[in-house]
Amino acid sequence: MNLEATRRDLNDLKSSSIRNSEKDTSHCPSDVSNLTVLPNGKKYLFSNETRVTWYEAKVLCEMQKLHLASPKTQQDLTTVHRKARELTFVPWWLSASDARSNPGQFFWHDGTSLSTNSLLWSEGEPSDYGQGNEACVWIRSNASDKLEGSKCSSYYHYICELPAACMSHK
């Protein structure tokens, strides 16, 4: 086989792989009827029946092929906060934490950094990290639409989000 034919075969294989991965919805939930569509166009599950740790919330979302919510802009944070406030005045887990990094280095579920000096944080936050503490991010629905930090072992409600890759399939 000559080099040019090998390159063509490789390109054909890549194209086929890309087409197949775009059609693969196995990583998406089969039923999204229990999700709430918010004005930002994203779909969420607000679990306001049970309080769990951040780690448990993460697993519960993943078991449903969702992830903990990641409102990375003030607009998304305000949108999620408003819905949470409509439901009940309790704390809600989000996806960001410093659990897999150095204390004070926060990341969303997808690895995107959340700076400690981000304007998304409440004044004085994040404050509950360092000295062996892992901090996980949450919102307080009975307060402003800003992020808070707390020990990941605290018990709060949680918000799951449909992965962006699944939005076009549902």
From TrEMBL:
Q: Which residues form the C-type lectin domain?
A: 39-161
What PROSITE patterns does UniProt report for this protein, alphabetically?
C_TYPE_LECTIN_2
Which InterPro entries does the annotation name?
C-type_lectin-like, C-type_lectin-like/link_sf, Ca-Dep_Lectins_ImmuneDev, CTDL_fold
Renumbered to this chain, region (Disordered) spans 1-30
Q: Per the record, where are the segments of Basic and acidic residues compositional bias?
A: 1-12
Protein name per the record: C-type lectin domain-containing protein
Q: Which organism is it from?
A: Cloeon dipterum
Q: What is the lineage of its organism?
A: Eukaryota, Metazoa, Ecdysozoa, Arthropoda, Hexapoda
